[in-house]
């Protein structure tokens, strides 16, 4: 896989998939939380890396803790968002080259795709309804 392709792999989307397909009633799995939590966390992660990236442990701690606090403040708490912030710091050169673009592609676009697929699949069965709320 080329360097750009490596930057498009977001490991935290695996945990998001568990929420949007397996815990569809959880407030943490709702579209606002999924999209907002990932994008906010990605922006904070990139900022943290640019601020103190030479001290990786500090940048990682700053990224994750700040992402959690801001997700709480914005009511977009989504636990995989913490990992999205961390990936912005430790994701290596492919992610660092994307800079703030990382928050929109692959993170924002990937979250939107996950939500669209979740809406389609979860509402296909008669006994399931997703989302519980949009905003």
Question: What features would you describe in this structure?
Answer:
The chain crosses the membrane at residues 6-24, 36-69, 100-121. It comes from Desulfomicrobium macestii. Residues 6-131 form the HPP transmembrane region domain. Keywords: Membrane, Transmembrane, Transmembrane helix. The chain has one domain. The longest helix has 22 residues, at 31-52. The mean pLDDT is 94. Helices cover 68% and strands 0% of the residues. It is elongated and about 50 Å long. Helix 2 packs parallel to helix 7 (104-122), helix 3 runs antiparallel to helix 7 and helix 4 (56-73) runs antiparallel to helix 5 (80-90). By secondary structure, it is mainly alpha-helical.
